[in-house]
Structures are given as structure tokens and as C-alpha cells.
Amino acid sequence: MLLRAGLAGLLERFGFEVIAQVGDADALTTAVARTRPDLVVTDIRMPPGFTDEGLRAAVALRRADPGLAVVALSQYVERSYAAELLDSGDGVRVGYLLKDRIVDVEDFVATLRQVVAGGTVVDPQVVRQLLVRRRDPLARLSAREHEVLALVAEGHSNAAIAARLVVTEAAVGKHVGNILAKLALPPTEDGNRRVLAVLTYLRATTF
User: Which domains does the chain have, with CATH numbers?
Assistant: First the structure.
């Protein structure tokens, strides 16, 4: 709360009009729908889990409105959603900054104005990590999808995976479908997509 209030005060001193301050991802989504801001500045970690709620909310907001300017602030690079955020809206009006590398207030404010004007600003460290990640064919999978694919590779059926993860078989089927789509394995007459997914997994995880 103190950091949020401090950032709001800083922005107001530099001529921004702060029309909403919120403390969680749901409130962020609601505030954007209500106020239609020119710019959203969000932390990656937000209640209740303090993991990647803010980043996931930013991705959803950009899906709904690709022209919405969004700057995400983080202590670390959350690669699974960072790439998706930066790819959204044709990659314009978006920024991803690491908080401990923001050392000049005026530069930070200039960065926000640049994003609002249509620019894209990404911390170089984020770029390096995303480039490494993009070479990994499993990079687009969520943590749960990684878990499901690992169990598929062990030879488990959807029913067995559902029992092991304590979820429904339908949920496992949906995860498997997402995995196949993310690995760019469309339906084919010549190959079993499930087997191809396992081969991709084994190539990526065997050193």
C-alpha cells in the first residue's frame, strides 16, 4: 500500500492524473473497465497469491483492449506471461521493467510517456531471458501443463493423470489440448500428436 501510494504521488508530481489505485488483480480489472485509463502501471505480484496475478491481469486487459497502454513492474522476469504481454497488441504501448534497475525517476517517467505515445520499453535483462526462453519448445506451457506433459511422457492415461493431480478427466483433456496447440501439433493423419508431444518433451528435458 505504501509503495502504491508513493508511486501515485510521484506520478502526480510529474503531471499524471491518477484516477484509480487498487490492491489486487480483480480490482485492477474492475477499475480499468470503469475508468478507461490511458495507462495502467501494475506490479507483477498482487494479492491473494503474490505470484503473477498482476501480470496475468495485464495480459487479460490487453487481450480485451490491445490499445491499452500497460507497464508492468517486477522484481524478476516472469517468463511464462511476460512474452505473452509483450506480444499483445502488436507489441506496442507496453513496457516491462525490473524495479531494482529503475535508478532515475525522470527516466522512469519518460519511459511511461513513451509507452503511452505508442512505444515499447523492455528492460534488457528481460529481453535476454525471453530470447533464451523462446528457444525452448516448452516455453509457452504453464506450470500445470508441464506437469501434465511430464505425466503423459511417463505413459499415464488422462484418467490416471486426473486421479494423480486430483482434478477432473475433462480438465486433463483440456490441458492436453492446450499443450498440443502450444507445441504447434495440429491434427494429422500420419502421426499421433500425443506421441509427438512426448518426443518434444524428451528432447527439451534430456541433457
Answer: 2-134 (3.40.50.2300), 143-205 (1.10.10.10)
